[in-house]
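Section 5.1 Outputs to date
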Amino acid sequence: MNMQRILSHRPFRWLAGGVAMVTLLSMGGAVYADVQTPINNTVVVQGTSGGSQSSSCGFISGSPSQVVRVTEPFAALRFRVEGGDSTTLLIQGPDGRNQCVMADSLAGGVIEVTGVWDQGRYTLFVGEQNQARTNPYTLSVVQE
């Protein structure tokens, strides 16, 4: 294959990749990749809170906002959500353990959960207390 033919295909590949990314981001919710400890850099995900599924922590999307796999016996992690006053954070942990944290107006729509987490898979959902509401959010995961 000559160089001119190779170069002529590259713009199409970049265009197709860009269209795919725009499509994924415009589908609502967040686009995430599984993260596993140790986490060297802060992981940041942006999306839209809420969804159509009722849960013990308000209304959530059918797909998680982030999945974190703790591969060490214990990991000190901080989960932080900046959203609206009615935003919730549902953390589904190993062995079916769930934790729900709700934002309020005093915290300015910020939820922060810190702790030492056991080994296992943690699925995070950014939800809403009211099904009719949505808010843009930023979720960050930091290993301390």
